[in-house]
Amino acid sequence: MILHRHEKVLLKELAKGKAGIEEIGMNADSARRAAFWLQEKGFAKVSEKESKTFVRSEECKKYLKGGFPEVNILKKDGAEVASLSAEERIGLIWAKKNGWITIEGGKIKVAGVPSGIYPLIEAAENPAKASKEELEILLRRKLVREEVGKEFVVELTERGKKEAAKIGEIKEEIGELTEDIIVSGAWKGAEFRPYTLAPTKDVPLGKVHPMTKMVRKVKRVFRDMGFEEMEGKMVESAFWNFDALFQPQDHPARELADTFYLEGEEKLPEDEEFEVEGKAKLPEKSLVERVKKSHEKGWKYQWDPKEAKKRILRTHTTVLSAQYLHKLKGNEAKKYFAVGRVFRNEATDFKHLAEFHQVEGIVAWEGATFRDLLGLLKEFYMRFGFEKIRFRPSYFPYTEPSVEVEVFFEERKEWMELGGAGVFRPEMTKPLCDVYPVLAWGLSLERPMMLMEGLKDIRTFYKNDLDWLKSPSVNR
User: Fold this and answer.
1) Could you tell me which of 324, 296, 300, 333 has the C-alpha nearest to residue 240?
2) Whole domain around residue 352: which residue ranges?
3) pLDDT digit string, tens, across residues 358-373
4) Closest Cα partner for 57 from 236, 224, 304?
5) Are residues 321 and 417 both part of a single domain?
6) Are 54 and 144 contacting, i.e. CB atoms less than 8 angstroms apart?
7) Structural domain tally of the chain?
8) Is there a domain that residue 197 lies in?
9) What is the pTM of this model?
10) pLDDT grade, residue 271 (50/70/90)?
């Protein structure tokens, strides 16, 4: 069997007893690719380990250097509460909660001083050894944040061990014979990368990819129903992707484990400049203030503009719905749709992709009702040939009430979930456009297509498998 040079190197390293890709002296990306190639050939097994670490915030580092506010407030014995700074007020709250002080006549009175080192200081210095209660306090005060790391572990199979034993000295291989290699004579005595030649057939005519067909069909159905298409960029600010959708800033979906973050940040209106080297500016300050107010009133926390400035790869096309709702003029009724790529920071397997398509549809009209939503959804799916449609109550972050849409697939004689829908929450739409209700729904393209095509692996759409692309089911 022909092996790539990277596969040979990895086999020999694994035969020495190394398991973690990080331990092997190879480029990490090359090692991962080689590991999965070996797994497909039955020479190795690839698994994933998860590890959790706690990272101190800048505020925590400041406290460790200059003292925790609750400890420093003990120096304010007899001081007026009204004269305290914002940070000192934080210390006042925690010192009072710890039973160190009381407040009499609007003044601070020290009731007791903590003996020894304040436990929270030791917990902040080494979060890994902190107690459960201390860790909860540190997380709640945003003094530390939890980060989840992943490590790929590769193990040789018995077949792989036998193959590794056959490998001798590994030399550099020439994969492409260039003019420079010929002229310099570097080809003499060199090893060339082998290629497998297979019998060829007549070259078939090119065909439209099934995913492209599906996208075109979805767009055509929406336009036939009187919808306008929404378009936007894939790199967005956290403000539009999360904050404008009334998603709290401590929501798990914002973590690195779920979202791809990019270096740099967008400019908020309170900054000196709006533009960020060709990237669209964030909205006017009045909208930012309305969104901030909605978060602080609804979620009861202090909204942080730093979180909103972060740049990400959009995690859903709902970001376009928020932007187009903000463009509405007065109480005009509008129907919009979008079909676009979105990104999630998750491991790729037979039913998950890090990059996939999402379909979005919204109706902004003050006279809209929940019954209108169900009627639109029924009409939409009937145009795809589904005659039996049913709705089930559900929950989604931005909508209330919410439903899941299921259709009966005759070929498989079973009900399939194709999408979710609901009415956008007023906490989201009021700051954006002061319109309520706004009907909304969305679905993935790949998963319904898997069911319709009878596929078991979502990656089939992107493997360029010619046998599948030529199959009658794809070209019907």
Assistant:
1) 324
2) 202-232+316-476
3) 999 999 998 999 999 9
4) 304
5) yes
6) yes
7) 4
8) no
9) 0.54
10) low
Q: Which amino acid does the sequence have at 36? A: F
Question: Going by DSSP bridges, is the β-strand pair 355-364/310-313 parallel, antiparallel, or unpaired?
Answer: unpaired
- Cβ atoms of 10 and 34 within 8 Å: the answer is yes
**What is the identity of the amino acid at 462?**
Y
Same domain, 173 and 97: no
Q: Does 33 share its domain with 161?
A: yes
pLDDT score of 457 more than 90: no
- Which stretches of 52-206 are DSSP H helices? 58-66, 69-72, 86-97, 119-125, 132-140, 158-166, 179-184
User: Structure tokens of 348?
Assistant: 């790729």
197 versus 247: the higher-pLDDT residue is: 247
172, two tokens? 């550099």
Q: Which of 264, 296, 313 is the last residue of a domain?
A: 313
Q: Are 38 and 162 in contact (CB under 8 A)?
A: no
Please say whether the dihedral angle defined by the alpha carbons of residues 26, 28, 34 and 40, taken in this order, is positive or negative: positive
Q: Sort strands 173-174 and 191-192 into parallel, antiparallel or unpaired.
A: parallel
Residue 343, domain member (yes or no): yes
CB contact set of 280 (below 8 Å; sequence gap of 6+)? 233
Q: Are both 473 and 446 inside the same structural domain?
A: yes
Domain assignment of residue 377, yes or no? yes
Task: Round to whole Å and give the CA distance between 45 and 304.
Answer: 44
